[in-house]
Amino acid sequence: MFDIRPYAKAELALLYSPNVAPRSAVKTLTRWINGCPLLVEELRALRYQPHRHSFLKPEVEDIIRHLGEP
């Protein structure tokens, strides 16, 4: 079972894309997030800050709900 907790962006991104460099994994995760308008809307409601280097627990919950577990 996936541990829902705060994650560094690179840490979470690497769980979704384990075979790529951390920077590429973050870019990929960002594209997936931006490709899901409902997720983007929910993250905005949580006051998500795209330039922050981590995801808070509620943000991780939304990401998992929309993208599935890594």
Key words describing this protein structure:
6% strand; 2 strands
Describe the structure.
The longest helix has 13 residues, at about 20-35. The mean pLDDT is about 95. Strands 1-2 form a two-stranded antiparallel ribbon. With about 70 residues, it is mainly alpha-helical. The chain is built from four helices and two strands. The protein starts with 6 loop residues before the first strand and ends with a helix. It has helices at about 10-15, 20-35, 35-45, 55-65; strands at about 5-10, 55.
Strand residue content? 5-15%
Shape: globular
Distance, first to last CA: 10 Å
Largest sheet: 2 strands, antiparallel
> Order of strands in the sheet with the most strands?
1-2
Please give the share of residues in helix: 55-70%
Question: Could you write a compact summary of the structure shown?
Answer:
The protein is mainly alpha-helical.
Task: Give the helix/strand layout.
Blueprint: E1 7-8, H1 9-16, H2 22-34, H3 37-45, E2 54-55, H4 57-67
Helix pairs in contact: 1-2, 3-4
